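Today's session is about reading a structure prediction critically. Students often jump straight to the picture, but the first step is always the sequence itself: look for stretches that repeat, for charged clusters, for runs of hydrophobic residues. Only then move on to the predicted structure, which in these notes is written as discrete structure tokens rather than atom positions. Here is the chain we will use throughout the hour.
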Amino acid sequence: MDATTTCHMSISLDGYVAGPDQSLEHPLGRGGIELHRWHLDEPLNDADRRARDLLLRPRGAYVMGRNMFGPIRGSWQEDWRGWWGEEPPYHAPVFVLTHFEHDPIEMAGGTTFHFVTDGFDAAFARASEAAGGRGVDIAGGASTVRQALNAGVVDELALDLVPVLLGAGERLFDGVPDPGFEPAEVIHSPLATHVRYVRRRAADRPGDRLG
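Below is the predicted structure for this chain, in token form.
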């Protein structure tokens, strides 16, 4: 079993993973859809297909932020069940960070959305237990990924670097110290450069060689 904690994000050249003004009409923000052409526009380049397969590999559980789950802000007022229809692509428990309590939502295909109001650490602990050794994925968005990086729980980070400039939106690495990754694989297509990073061994980290 693969018990690593993973994260896979598409990112612009200027460091944004979503454009500005996210809404029901523009879930990825204005211009954000351009970050995902590499896996949406068929037929796929071989490199893009490999990266998509990595993105969609099964995980034991997921953690995501409320903005990733839907456009609703404040208290729950609508019967929102996510962006993905009645059978989301996760097929595993998904733990959604929120400030507002909500009963679990069971979907077709094995996905159940659980809503966690006591912070990232609690959500990650519950996801790790639910995963049962099959690994946790940090599904986004930017704020949740930053919390995961700051907590030091991400073992593998895949970035799909897309040659566009968004100029504004949700930046991925603001306020994040060096997470201690090294590139393990780089592949590319005309639409994106896909880099898979893994956490450096402690002995290979500059700070750990001192003293």
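Discussion point for the tutorial: The chain has one domain: 5-70+88-209.
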